[in-house]
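User: I'm putting together notes for a lab meeting next week and I want to include a structural view of one of the chains we've been expressing. I don't have a solved structure, so I'd like a prediction I can at least talk through. The sequence is below, exactly as it appears in our construct file.
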Amino acid sequence: MRLALFRVLRWAALALLLAGAGAWARAPGEGEITLQGRYWIDPTGTATIADVAGGAAQLQPFERHRAFMLGQAALWMRFDLPALDAGHRWYVLLPGSPFIDRASLFTSADGQWREQHAGDHIPVAQWDHPFMSPLFELHPPHPGTVWLRVENQPAPTSPFVRLLTDDSLQQQMQWTDLLVGAYLGFGLLVLLVGLMHARLYGDRVFDIYCAYVAFMLLFQLAFTGLGGVFLWREWATVNDTAPAVFMLCMIACGIWFVREATAVQRHSRIVDRFARGFSVFGLVLAAFYDLGRDHGAYTLLNVYGLVSVVVSLGLCAWTWRKGEKYSGWLLLGFLPVHLGYPFPALRAAGVLPDSWATQYAVLIGSAIEIPLLLWILHWRAKDFSENRVRARALDSIDPLTGLAIAPVLRLRLRDALRRAGSTGQRCSLMLVELCNHAAIVAREGREAGDRALVVAAARMSELVRDLDTVCRIADTRFAILTEGSQDEDRRRMLAQHIVARGLEPVPRLARDTALHFRIVTVAAPGGALELSSNAAFDEQYLMQRLNRTLDRVTAEARKVVFHIEPRPELDSRVPASIP
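Assistant: Thanks for the context. Below is the predicted structure for the 579-residue chain, given as structure tokens.
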């Protein structure tokens, strides 16, 4: 199995390498051109292309990638492009920059400047070339001088400009659609499995986890720009605010999820209130973020995101130290996203330029985190579910023998008698007394007596069917309820087999020690009692009669098995048994 899996992975890796080989074969002139250009910052943001091209721009060379806090200003960049291969269509792309408010490319044709525009303040459907990031077309073979103008606030702008052909653009689109589409499909599958677990285990942690995953997927759609291309093409406001709003909702749900999964409320009311308040603050900030989109709101957004990393890791580590064993696993589960988060955070702070890493680091981390968290939650819920089952079982199972207790027998006997009244199918009930238990205790001690009871319960359970019921109803007394269509001979044979199994040697007891049973059996209804309109009364009457009979049989010690035979005058009043 492992060898087959290894072969599949090997062939998949080879296919990816072969598929990506074409992407590495660049045409002459392709690649990043940011550092080949020169820039000027228009402090008022009012300069036109005629002003800039006419000499108003005081251009400076790009010595390195850097970030610009523009505010109301505008960034102008000039690129003097060489002759390009006319066999291709050529494009200028700002990859990793789906958050630019407005970007315009100016190219000269017949002495006139032609403008192409893109950006979040323009609906994607109205872009000259709708794409995940601002994309502009050139006119080979001699594009000459082109100007790129960028507006953006309050986030810093760190331009990353690429020149590429139509083939490279097509390959990039295909790879992006493949990888992001696979991520979204996998995320939706995990979301569906999470909802199924929520219904299966009845644990609200799964509901909160599903909300966290849903907002994570929406955030990635907005962050990568695919949401603007496919979902909200006509709504510039949604395209502009979606990354921040979905990020805040995702963080709020994530902290609430950590609070629930780590059982913070069990350890500290103050910490629990802090976690709830932190989550609610994120939702409130998301609701009002679009009303106050200034530098202060943007700073608050980034601070909230960075603090959430510390809060989630801190809650997991703290509750793990308090004894919550799954908190440690949750801490490891969150690490992939937390390790990827610094890249977009540093980009937002202007420390890193726009790049593939700043755009896809969180996506890659969440692709690892989402299924990992679901796996951890599955084992957590399974463990808790098993504990709840054991706790409930303690209320219906005898702790020494593992058999059902008397209330369970009464309920099942009552149901069997009620069914007998409508179908005529008799059930059999027998009481079994371990009559030499006191002698075993006197001879070998209390521990040997308990072992004798356990062995007796095990041997009786081996002789009945799965649908039958074996109960311990008193210290040394057991009851066996057999249901379904059956004849009188089976009831008698079962009693004989129980007596015979009791005479077999008992492990870890003296070799001459055996289990001596006294048994009373009855078929009900049909001679044991008349069915009344109250099945509860019938059950009580039957148990009282059997217990009195077994007490008499045990006291007399003349007969090992006693069968209460049917009374013909009552048999005629009971429907025939269904075969």
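A couple of points you could mention at the meeting. Residues 356-394 form the longest helix (39 residues). The CA atoms of residues 263 and 319 lie 8 Å apart.

User: Perfect, that's what I needed.
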